[in-house]
Amino acid sequence: IDDLAEVDYSLNSLPAVFQPFIDLDLKGIVYPAGNYAGPPYVAAPFTIPDQSDSMLHLAFSEYFFQTSSFAYYTAGAFSITIAEETCSYFNISTEIFGSIIPEVAKYSVTPYPVMLKLTATEIPIISLEQDSFTVEIRGSMEVFAVLPDSATESLFTMNIAANTSIALNIFDQKLMGSLCLNR
């Protein structure tokens, strides 16, 4: 897939050939690149509703998304640092955090730019729903003040639990998504 993850796909059973179609039952597992240790999930069988009016049917199970999440988490992909340039674009500084957290205001009288380090602390959980899928992410965010000499000093760390729903639709032959923060 990329430098962090690889996909292994194989036939679950022999292809079923019928008059109007061929049924290929593939099992896809995503692994961290170069590490083919089994993921901590068990694949559950599922069926695709019979729709004979389409030329191609693709179905992805929760297992595929769970192994993807596991692979990218294991490879360290869910750790990101948002640097000064990005924070200044959104105008995030110690002054903003100081208005919310009084201890930051006491510590940092002079406004400094900040740097955010976001890290997933657990494997993100992906659940498929009828018309969308849900992603639950647990992580931490450490906020640093970027001092004039480019050194950083940790201001605070907080734990985060986010639950989002993502719905995919096709509009004008384009795949579009909508994201909703549930909590």
TrEMBL record:
Subunit (UniProt): Monomer. Homodimer; disulfide-linked.
GO cellular component: extracellular space
Pfam families: LBP_BPI_CETP_C
Name this polypeptide is given: Bactericidal permeability-increasing protein
Domain remark in the UniProt entry: The N- and C-terminal barrels adopt an identical fold despite having only 13% of conserved residues.
Major location category of this protein: secreted
Keyword annotations of the record: Antibiotic, Antimicrobial, Disulfide bond, Glycoprotein, Immunity, Innate immunity, Secreted, Signal
Record GO biological process: defense response to Gram-negative bacterium; innate immune response
Record's function text: The cytotoxic action of BPI is limited to many species of Gram-negative bacteria; this specificity may be explained by a strong affinity of the very basic N-terminal half for the negatively charged lipopolysaccharides that are unique to the Gram-negative bacterial outer envelope.
Gene3D superfamilies on file: Bactericidal permeability-increasing protein, domain 2
